[in-house]
Amino acid sequence: MSAARIDWRIVAAGCLAVLAAIALGGRGGAPLVTEMLLMALFASSLNLLMSYGGMVSFGHAAFFGLGAYGLALAVSRFGLPVAAGLACGPLLAGLLALVFGTLCVRLSHIYFAMLTLACGQITFTVLFQWYDFTGGDTGITGFMAPAFGLDERWFAVVVLGVVVACLLALWRVVNAPLGITIRSVGEDPERVSASGLNPRRVQLTAFVIAGTLAGVAGSLFAALQGNAFPDYAGLGFTLDSLIMVVLGGLRSFGGGLYGAVIYVLLRNYVPLLVTEWELVIGVILLLVVLWSPEGFAGGLQRIGRRLRSEPRP
Amino acid sequence: MVDKRFELSRTLARAALAAVGLAMVAAVAAGPARAADPIRIGLVAGISGACGPLVDGEVKAVELGVDQLNAKGGLLGRPIELIKRDSKTKPDEGAKLARELVLNDKVDVLTGTCSSAVMLAVSAVSKELKTPFYSTIGNSQKANIEAFQPYFWQTQAHALMEAAAAAEFVAGHADWKRVVPMGFDYEWGHTSVDTFVAHLKQLRPDMEIADPLFPKIGESNMTSYITAALAQKPDVVYAAVFGGGLINLIKQGKSFGFFQRASLVTLMTVDTMQALAKDMPAKGVSGYARAPFFELMGNPKAKAFVEAYRERYGVYPDDWATSSYDGLMYLAAAIEAAGGTDADKLMAAVTSITVHGLRGDALKVRDFDHLMNAPVYVGDVTTDSPYGFPIMKNVVRIDADKTMPSKEQVEKLRAAAQ
Amino acid sequence: MTATAGRPILEAEGVARQFGRFVALGGVDLALEAGEKRALIGPNGAGKSTFINVVGGQLAASAGTIRLDGRDVTGLQPHQLARSGLGRTFQISRTYRQMSVRENLVAAYLVARGHGYSLSRGRLRALAAEAEALLERVGIAGLAERPADDISHGDRKRLEFAMVLAGEPRLLLLDEPTAGMGLKERHELMDLVAEEASGRGLTLLFVEHDIDVVFRIADRITVMARGQVFAEGTADEIAADREVQRIYLGEGH
Amino acid sequence: MLTVQIVNGLMEGMMLFLIASGLTLIFGVSRIINFAHGSLYMLGAFLTYQLVPLFSDGSLLGFAVAVLLGAVLAAAVGALFEMAVLRRIYRAPELMQLIVTIALVLIVRDLVRLVWGPNNVSVSMPDALAGAVQIGDSFFPTFQFAIFGAGLLVVALMIAIIRFTRAGVLLRAATDDRGMVALLGIDQRRIFTATFAAGSFLAGLAGGLASPFGNVNYLLDTEVIVAAFIVVVIGGLGNLYGALAGALAVGVIKSLGVLYFPRLAMVLIFLVMAAVLLVRSMGRRELQR
C-alpha cells in the first residue's frame, strides 16, 4: 500500500522556486507571484469539488468574494483589527458555503451546477447592489494598507507560507479516510448511500472545506489589494477557476496549482503581445481539452509513461 | 492508498515544479531596467471587458498626443514613453498592473482608467506608491471626496458636476413641469440621480419629480423602464446612463414613440451619436457632454487636434478621446512647470498652473479636491449635421463654477464618510 | 448477528409504486424469515427490480409498509436502511470505477465502520489488511491494484458483493447478480454468495432469471407478474405449479 | 399601468424565449450546456448588421433576408464547431464539453472584435416595424408585436417539426433516450450535428431579430447567456414548452419588478431559479443511472 506521503523534497523545491521568483521579480513582480499563489489555492479548492467530489460548481467565486468581503467588512464596518478580519473572511465564506451547500447538494450534475450558478449570482448581486453596507460596485477601499503595508516581497512570502499550509492540509484531507469517502461519492453516490453513509453530508463537507479555502484565498487577495470589489465574487472569477482546473488537470491533486501558474502567466503576458488575448487563451483551452483532456498534469503523466515504457538504449 | 491517476511520479513532479519555477522566474524577471531618461506614462485602460467600447478613443488620442509631443522634442528635452496595459476592466488587475508599472517599469505618471472601481483601485496604488495619477474617463466623485488622496487629479467634470449641469439644463426649460429621473443601478447612477434631484429641487421647487427608476447597468431590455417612465406622463426623463445601455434606451424608446411625448436628457457623447447615426431620433433628445469636438472647433488647438486625429485614424474623436488628449496636455504643461517628474513637485504644479486647453483657456485644478474646472456642454441632439452622424445644437457651456461642489460641501461629505 | 429462525426479518405489506400512471408495483406482500434464501423471479416488467429498489430505499413507495426486524422503515433513506443491516447490489454493478479494487473495498469498510469522516490515515492501514482478506475470500485478491474500471464484468460483480459484505449486513438484496455472465461464472458466483450467506447467517433476497441458479440456491421462491406476487413456495412447489409454468416458465426462460 | 407592464413583460419574455429556445433544444438532445449560445446570438446580430445594407434600404423583406442569412451562417458555425470539436469529446465527462463551449466564447468574442471593432454599432429598424400601436392610452412598439409573432412562429414550427417529421421523431427519441437512437440504427452523430446547427440557427435568428431593438457590440454574449440560462432552468432543462413559460414568466417578473420591487428584481429572478431547481428535485431521490 503506497500511503501517499508528502515528499518534503518536492515541497521544499517548490517553495524555493517561488522564493526565487519573488526575489528575482522584485517589488513589482512579487504581486504577480502572490496572485499566482492565491489563484493556486482558489483553484485547488475548486479542484477538491471537481476532481474528488465530482461536483462542478459555477459559483465558486462567491466564496472567494465572501472571503474578501469578510475581511473588508469586519475592518471597515465593525472596526475589527485586520488580524481578526483575516479570520472573519474564511469564516463568512465557510458559513455561506454551509448554507448554499445544504441546498446545492440536494441536486446533482448539471442541476447542481445551475444551482451553484444561482447562488453565486445572488451573492454577486447582493454585493453589487447593497451600497450602504458593501459599497456597491465601488467596493470597499482604503480600509487597510495593501499587503499590510509590507514590502510586496515580504507579503508574497507570508502568502506562500499560508498557501503551502493550506495545500498541505488539503493533501492531508484527500489522502485521509475523508478524502476516500469524498472520492467515493464523486464516483457513485448511490453506492455510498447503499453502503450506509449519506452522500449529501459528504458532499456538504467537501463543499464547506472548499468554500472555506476559497475564502482564505479571497481574504488574502483582499489584503493584497487593500480593497474588495463585487467582481471578486463574479462570474469572471468563477470561469477563471474552472479554466485553471481544466488547464492544470482534472483528477490530479496538482491540477489547481499547475493551472493557476499557467493561466495567470498567460493572462499576464499574452495581453502584452496581442490585444486579443482571450482568443489565444480560448484556443489553448480548446487544444488542451482535445489533446490532453487531463490537462497539464495528465500530459506530464503521459510523457512519464512513455518514457518508462520505452527501453533506453 | 492512492489511485495511480492521483499519484504523481516523483521525478515528474519535480520536473514539473522545476518548469513552473523556471517559468515564474523567467516571467517576473522579464523587463530589464532601462535608462532613467524618458518620461514614462503608464496607461492602464480597460481595453477588454466592459470598458472596451469606451477606451478605444482614449488610447488612440493618448498615442497621438505622445507622438506629437515627442515630435516636438519631448518634454524638458526628455522623450515620452507610453506604456499601455489592459486592465480588462477589473479592479484587481488594474491595481496589479499599476503597481507593476510603477515598481518595474518606473513610470512617472499613471492614467487611463474608465470604470469607477478600477479608478479607485488604481488611486489606492497611486497613493501608496506616491505616483501621480489622473483620470480622464472614470469620473466617480469618490476619488475626489471620500477616497481623495494627494496624488490624484480629475480632468473631467465628476458625477456630481455632470448631474448638476443636467439639472441646470432641465430647470432652464420653463415648459417642463414633470421629470422622471433614471440611472443605472450602481454607484455612479445613484449618485447622479440623487445629485440631479437635489439640485433641481433648489432650482425649480415647482417641478414635479417622480420616483427614480434604476435599470441594471448596461440593461439590454429597457422596455419595462420606458413604459414605467411614460406612465408618469413626464415632460422630460433624466437618464444617468451611457454607452450600450443608452443606445438601448434610445432605440427602444423610439419604438414606443417616447420622443413624441417626452424629452430625454442624458450623457450624450460623440461615440453614442456615431453608433446611432441615422437611427437617432430627429427630436426629443438632449444631452450633456464632456468634450464634444464639434463644439470646440472654434478653438484652434482643438481644431488642430481633430484634424490630426482624423488624419491618423480616419474618424472624428469622441468625447473620451478629446478629453483624454486634453488631460495629457495638461499633464505636459504641469511637467514643464514642475521642471521634472518628481511626484510632489509635479502635484504642486498640477494645482497651480492654468492651461489653455481644448476645452477652454483657463483650465486649472483646484487644490482641496484636485478637481479640474472642466465645463459641461449641454444641448439638443440634431440629425442635421455636416459630419455624417448627429451632433448637438444650441450648445451651452455650463462653467464649472456653477456645478463644482464648494469646499464646505466637500468637507461635509468627507466628514460624513468617516 | 445470528437471527432466530421463524421471525420475519423483512415484511412488506401492500407495497405499491407508480410512475405517473404506470403501476409498477400494485401492492406486494412479502415476508422473509431470518436466514432464508429467497429468489424473486418473474418475466420482464414484473416489478422485481422496482420492489428491490423500494425495499432498498432507492425508490420511495407510493403506498404500503416495510418492516425490518419488526421496525417500520418505510420511507427511510438508503443509508439509514444500510445502517439497519440491509446490504444490496445493483443490476448494473455499482463500484467506484476510477479507484483501485482495494480502494473500493477500503472505502466500503470506512463507511461501514463509521470512519467516513476520519482524518486519521492510521485507519486506512488497519483496514487495508481486512480488505486484503476479504478480496482473497471472494477470489479477486490478484486484482487489488487494478482500477475497478479495468476488471471484467464478473469480477466487478464479485467486488461489489465484497463491498456489501464489508458492511456486515443481515439482509442481502441482490438485483440480478449474474446478469450478463457466462454459465460457469454464474454458478461460481452464486455458490460463493450462498456459501457466504450461510456462513454469516445472512438472509438473502435475489432477483434471478436463470432458473437453474434459482433452483440450486433458493429455499423459497416468489414469482411476480405485473407488479403483483403471483405465487410463492418452495422450489418443488413452484416447479409443479402449472399456472407459473404457463405464464412464466413457458413464456420466457 | 399594471396591464401595460404585464403586456410589456410578455413581449420581453417572448424575446427571451427566442434567445433560449436553441439552448434548450441543444441541451435536450445532447445534454450539453452550451455557454457559446450567447456568442452565436452575438454573431447573428453582427452578421445582420453586415448584411442589412446589402439587402434592405428599410424594407422588411430585405431585413428578413439578412436575418435569415445571418442565422444560417450562425448555424454553419455551430455545425462546424460540433463536427470539429464537440464530436471528439462526447464520451468525455460533461465538464469537458462545457469547457470547450467556454473556449468558443473567448474565441468568438475576440474574432468579432477583430472584425467589427470594439465600438457600439446600430442596426436600423425596418420602416414597417418602426411605429407604435396604440392600445388604450398606451403605445406598444409594432416591432414587439412582430417579435411576438416570430416567437409564436418559431414555437409552431418547432412543434410541427417535432410532431410531424421524421427528423422530429428522431429528435424526440434522442431527447428521451440517447441509446435508443443508436438502436434504431441511425447515425447519432448526424442528429447531434443537426441539433447543434438548429440550436445555433435559433441563436443567430434571435440575435438578428433583436438587433434593431438595441445596441450591438462584442460584449453582447455575456449579457445574453445568463438570461438564457435562467429561462432554460426555470422552464426545465430541455423542455421547449417550459422554456416558453419560463421566458414569459421571467419577462413579467422583471417588468413588474420595475413597479413593485425595483432593487430586488435581479436577486428575485435568481431566487426563482434556485427555488424551481429545488422544488423539482423534491421527491427525486431516485436512482440515477
From TrEMBL, chain A:
Classification via InterPro entries: ABC_transp_permease, LivM-like
Ranges annotated as spanning the membrane: 6-25, 37-58, 78-103, 110-131, 154-174, 204-226, 280-300
GO cellular component assignments: plasma membrane
Key words, A-Z: Cell membrane, Membrane, Transmembrane, Transmembrane helix
Pfam family name, one: BPD_transp_2
Domain of life assignment: Bacteria
Major subcellular location class: membrane
Membrane topology: Multi-pass membrane protein
An example Gene Ontology molecular-function term: branched-chain amino acid transmembrane transporter activity
Entry keyword annotation includes Zinc: no
Subcellular location: Cell membrane
Name the UniProt record assigns to this protein: Amino acid/amide ABC transporter membrane protein 2, HAAT family
Organism: Tistlia consotensis USBA 355
UniProtKB/TrEMBL annotation, chain B:
Domain of life from the UniProt record: Bacteria
Biological process annotations from GO: amino acid transport
InterPro entries: BCAA_transport, Leu-bd, Peripla_BP_I
Leader peptide range in chain numbering: 1-35
Keywords annotated in UniProt: Amino-acid transport, Signal, Transport
Start and end residues of each Leucine-binding protein domain: 38-383
UniProt similarity note: Belongs to the leucine-binding protein family.
Protein name: Amino acid/amide ABC transporter substrate-binding protein, HAAT family
Automatic annotation (TrEMBL), chain C:
Keywords: ATP-binding, Nucleotide-binding, Transport
Pfam families: ABC_tran (PF00005), BCA_ABC_TP_C (PF12399)
Residue intervals passing through the bilayer: none
GO CC term (a single one): plasma membrane
Superkingdom of the organism of origin: Bacteria
Record-linked SUPFAM superfamilies: P-loop containing nucleoside triphosphate hydrolases
GO biological process entries: D-alanine transmembrane transport; L-alanine transport; L-isoleucine import across plasma membrane; L-valine import across plasma membrane
Domain ABC transporter: from-to ranges: 10-251
Molecular function (Gene Ontology), one example: L-phenylalanine transmembrane transporter activity
Listed CDD domains: ABC_Mj1267_LivG_branched
InterPro entries, A to Z: AAA+_ATPase, ABC_AA/LPS_Transport, ABC_transporter-like_ATP-bd, ABC_transporter-like_CS, BCA_ABC_TP_C, P-loop_NTPase
This protein's name: Amino acid/amide ABC transporter ATP-binding protein 1, HAAT family
Organism: Tistlia consotensis USBA 355
UniProtKB/TrEMBL annotation, chain D:
Record's keyword terms, sorted: Amino-acid transport, Cell membrane, Membrane, Transmembrane, Transmembrane helix, Transport
InterPro entries attached to this UniProt entry: ABC_transp_permease, BCAA_transport_permease
BP-aspect Gene Ontology terms: amino acid transport
CDD domains: TM_PBP1_LivH_like
One term under GO cellular component: plasma membrane
Localisation: Cell membrane
Membrane spanning residue stretches: 6-27, 62-86, 98-116, 143-162, 191-213, 225-252, 264-283
Membrane topology annotation: Multi-pass membrane protein
Main location: membrane
Recorded superkingdom: Bacteria
GO MF annotations in UniProt: transmembrane transporter activity
PANTHER family in the record: ABC TRANSPORTER ATP-BINDING PROTEIN, BRANCHED-CHAIN AMINO ACID TRANSPORT SYSTEM PERMEASE PROTEIN LIVH
Sequence similarity: Belongs to the binding-protein-dependent transport system permease family. LivHM subfamily.
Protein name stated in the entry: Amino acid/amide ABC transporter membrane protein 1, HAAT family
Species the sequence originates in: Tistlia consotensis USBA 355
